[in-house]
Amino acid sequence: MERIIKRVFFVIFTICFFFFSSFIEEQLLFVRKTSHPAYRPQFTINSVSLFRMVFLH
What we know:
Elements: H1 2-34, H2 41-56
């Protein structure tokens, strides 16, 4: 039972590590893209949300 719990925690940690590290990269992209008036922030928010929903489902 303890081995199963350790594996589950490892999987959760790995998933969180990849998702939260990608937040930093996305923030820099978001700032760069929204500095131009022709780009709407809603496009980035929608695409990121849609992409993450695929993995949560």
